[in-house]
Design brief:
alpha/beta; Rossmann fold; single chain
């Protein structure tokens, strides 16, 4: 597989609504269900496509897959081609935000706008240390200790206290999940660094960052806003890394407002106003 050549891997996805296309990309070890409260709300106004990336959710895990960014980008190109989508607003959360950024840099002709949630232009030592701690916890203490660890790292404490049933579901899911694809994608992400290319990004961009993110430091939101020409930023207080689950209403509002404004600008430019 080479860069720019669509993948033959058919990603499982939800595809709902009509209008400008919004492509929602989940993060490492997750699935399209991270958008469970965001997708139906956006689909009232837009066509929303939310895939399970390779090896995640209900999408296949090719035995020879590296889960590097060229593979993941090729999968997205194939998905958009099969669905006959020329251009989309690409929204990514966590590792999906890094993928969305790479896709916008490598394939700007397919990206009408970019929304990065809990993302960064590069993977720093802090984020790498968090991922390493997860790996070591799983290997040394087992899946239940790993589940507790990621709950502490990923979510704002007050949110977990108010959603203990959800926390139990996460711990149960970890027991049966194949973490191989997530581990390999995490390894690829550990080397992610697009600082040099980000200033050349020419698509409308929105940054959504949580002040209490324990995985990606909130300072990355400011770095992205300062580095990407014309980028907007939305900062959420008392929120952890899992913004789409913790703050679905604010996430929906931010994405919808951004897409509306970008579409209005496109329409105006096309009309010559």
């Amino acid at each position: 597989m080479t860069d720019g050549v669509p993948s033959s891997l058919g990603l499982h996805s939800r595809d709902e609504g009509h209008g400008p296309v919004v492509l929602l990309l989940h993060g490492v070890g997750l699935s399209h269900t991270v958008w469970r409260d965001v997708l139906p709300a956006l689909a009232r106004e837009f066509r929303v496509i939310a895939p399970d990336l390779r090896g995640h959710g209900r999408s296949a895990a090719p035995p020879d897959a590296t889960y590097g960014f060229p593979e993941l980008e090729a999968d997205l190109l194939g998905l958009l081609d099969r669905k006959e989508v020329d251009g989309a607003y690409v929204v990514g959360h966590s590792g999906g935000a890094l993928l969305a950024l790479r896709f916008a840099l490598d394939h700007p002709e397919r990206v009408r706008g970019l929304v990065m949630i809990s993302g960064s232009a590069y993977t720093d030592a802090h984020t790498r240390s968090v991922a390493q701690r997860w790996t070591e916890t799983y290997q040394r203490e087992g899946p239940d200790a790993f589940g507790l660890r990621i709950l502490k790292d990923l979510y704002y404490p007050d949110w977990i206290e108010a959603h203990l049933d959800f926390a139990d579901q996460v711990r149960a899911a970890v027991q049966r999940q194949d973490l191989g694809p997530a581990t390999r994608w995490s390894d690829a992400m550990s080397k992610f660094d697009e600082k040099a290319r980000v200033p050349g990004l020419k698509v409308p961009t929105l940054i959504v960052q949580a002040m209490d993110d324990q995985v990606v430091d909130a300072s990355h939101g400011r770095i992205l806003r300062q580095s990407i020409p014309g980028a907007q930023i939305r900062i959420l207080a008392e929120t952890g890394h899992m913004v789409p689950l913790e703050r679905p209403n604010e996430t929906t509002e931010a994405i919808a407002g951004f897409v509306r404004a970008a579409e209005a600008a496109r329409t105006g430019a096309a009309a010559g106003t």
